[in-house]
Design a protein that fits this description.
alpha/beta, 4-stranded antiparallel sheet, 9 helices, 9 strands, 33% helix, globular, rRNA-binding
Length: 233
């Protein structure tokens, strides 16, 4: 680790569990880069993703967006294609887009949406889009007939997330420049969504640990008891 990182790491008490208010106030003090860093949440949940009924995959609309301009591709035809363009989709097409991805390995987009009738075609892209978490999926609202709504939500800052093998959910919740209040509201929106998605078969403590970190900074662990109290208000 560099000297700057080592210096700011000393500002974090590794034995302390910070309140959310304390954590979002501390994050700017841990910044030593010149660019606007992304703030991420890492939540370790009391689930076993090996069981299908405990695999959490969904999406969440952040009140203040992510601070990032996302490129959206829509696989649709006819009226739905026109609706997608009007809603602000960056790329719209059908067989032509599928062929472009297959033949050119074209991946210049951040999110993909498809109408249900297009999934037969789009399914051919599974080996390319799947490992990159770009495959349209009804669980996160990216396989839908209401493509205009999906495009607007993603452009406004809707994020997708899923549990990893270890039961951890990683998700971006904004930029350092957002300030404490907007970051706090975005973080609570994500954690509230995770709480509502708690599987009925999950036993024991659900939020085992929750940490915040910036792109280049050290992580700050949160008080999970306070988190639960905040989202249950």
């Amino acid at each position: 680790m560099g000297k700057k990182y080592e210096a700011i790491r000393k500002l974090v008490d590794r034995d302390k569990r910070y309140t959310l208010a304390e954590a979002v106030e501390l994050l700017p003090k841990l910044k030593f880069t010149k660019f606007d860093e992304t703030i991420d949440v890492a939540a370790r949940l009391g689930v076993n993703p090996k069981h299908a009924d405990q695999m959490i995959r969904s999406s969440c609309a952040l009140p203040h967006g992510t601070g990032k301009s996302l490129r959206v591709v829509v696989f649709a035809k006819g009226e739905r294609a026109n609706e997608a363009r009007e809603a602000g989709a960056d790329f719209v097409g059908a067989e032509d887009l599928v062929d472009r991805v297959l033949k050119e390995n074209w991946l210049e987009f951040d999110s993909a949406i498809a109408t249900p009738d297009m999934m037969g075609l789009v399914g051919r892209l599974g080996r390319i889009l799947g490992p990159r978490n770009l495959m349209p999926n009804p669980k996160v609202g990216t396989v839908t007939m209401d493509v205009a709504k999906a495009v607007r939500e993603i452009k406004a800052g809707r994020i997708e997330f899923r549990t990893e093998k270890t039961g951890i959910v990683h998700a971006p919740v904004g930029k350092m420049s957002f300030g404490p209040d907007k970051l706090r509201e975005n973080i609570l929106a994500l954690l509230d969504t995770l709480q509502r998605l708690k599987p009925s078969t999950a036993k024991g403590k659900y939020f085992k640990s929750v940490s915040l970190s910036s792109t280049m900074g050290p992580s700050v662990r949160l008080d999970t008891n306070e988190i639960v109290a905040l989202i249950e208000r």
